[in-house]
Specification:
The protein is an alpha/beta fold. It has one domain: Carbamate kinase (3-Layer(aba) Sandwich), CATH 3.40.1160. The chain is built from eight helices and eleven strands.
C-alpha cells in the first residue's frame, strides 16, 4: 500500500470544553500549547490549517435556561467567549513561530479582522493559520455549524472536530455502558439516529456539500496531528 496522501487544507473545530483541560472552566495553558505544537508540525508539512473554537469553557448560549436572559443575547455572549479563546490560541500559535490571523464574524477590529472569504483563503495560501471567531455572527447557530460553513467557504478537504469523546458512538459513552463506536458512519445515519456528537445543521451542510467530517478525542496526545495527516483515529462521517 502507498502512503496516505496528505490533505492540502483542513479546518479544525476545537470544542471550548476541551480547551479547559482539567480545570473547571477557562483555558488550560498546557492544552493550548500542545495544540499549537501539533498544528506547527502540520504546517511544517505544507498543510494549510484553519481553526474554529467553541466557547463552552466560558459560556454556552443554548444552556442558559436557568438565567432570565433572552436566547439571542445569550448566544452573543457565547460568541464573545469564542473570541477570548481565539486570542489565547493566537498567542499560543505565535509562540510556536506560526504566523496567525484571527477573523471575526462580529466587528471587533482591535483584536481581529472582519471575516472576508477571499482574504481568509489568501491568508491560508500564504501559510498563515487562520482562527475564525464569533461563530457565524448570528444567534441560534452553533459553533459546529460555523465550522462547517467556514470549511465549505474555504474549500477545506475535511472538517476535523476535536472533542471530549473518541469518535461517534451509538449513545453517550459518558452515560451509557456497552455503546458501539463507529469507524465510519453516513451523514444520514448520524441525522436519523439523532447522535449528538456534532450539531445536525452542521452535518446537513456537510452532506449537501460532500465534506467529510472526522470526530476524534482531543485529550489523547498527538491526536490533532494524526487527524490532520489522515491517520486512522476517531470516526469519519461521509
Amino acid at each position: 500500500m502507498g502512503a496516505i496522501p496528505l490533505p492540502k487544507r483542513v479546518l479544525l473545530k476545537l470544542s471550548g470544553e476541551a480547551l479547559k483541560g482539567d480545570r473547571p472552566f477557562g483555558i488550560s495553558n498546557p492544552v493550548i500549547t500542545d495544540i499549537a505544537s501539533q498544528i506547527k508540525q502540520a504546517t511544517d508539512l505544507g498543510i494549510q490549517v484553519a481553526v474554529v473554537t467553541g466557547g463552552g469553557n466560558f459560556f454556552r448560549g443554548n444552556r442558559q435556561e436557568d438565567l432570565d436572559i433572552d436566547r439571542a443575547s445569550a448566544d452573543y455572549m457565547g460568541m464573545l467567549a469564542t473570541i477570548l479563546n481565539g486570542i489565547a490560541l493566537q498567542d499560543a500559535f505565535e509562540k510556536q513561530g506560526l504566523t496567525t490571523r484571527m477573523m471575526s464574524a462580529l466587528e471587533i477590529t482591535e483584536v481581529a479582522e472582519p471575516f472576508i472569504r477571499r482574504r481568509a483563503v489568501r491568508h491560508l495560501e500564504k501559510g498563515r493559520v487562520v482562527i475564525f471567531a464569533a461563530g457565524t455572527g448570528s444567534p441560534f447557530f452553533s459553533t459546529d455549524t460555523a465550522a462547517a460553513l467556514r470549511a465549505i467557504e474555504i474549500k477545506a478537504d475535511i472538517l476535523l472536530k476535536a472533542t471530549m469523546v473518541d469518535g461517534v458512538f451509538s449513545d453517550d459513552p459518558h452515560r451509557v455502558k456497552d455503546v458501539k463506536r463507529f469507524d465510519t458512519i453516513s451523514y444520514s445515519e448520524v441525522l436519523s439516529r439523532e447522535l449528538k456528537v456534532i450539531d445536525s445543521t452542521a452535518v446537513t451542510l456537510c452532506k449537501e456539500n460532500n465534506l467529510r467530517i472526522k470526530i476524534f478525542k482531543l485529550s489523547n496526545r498527538g491526536n490533532i496531528f494524526k487527524a490532520i495527516t489522515n491517520r486512522d483515529i476517531g470516526t469519519i462521517i461521509k
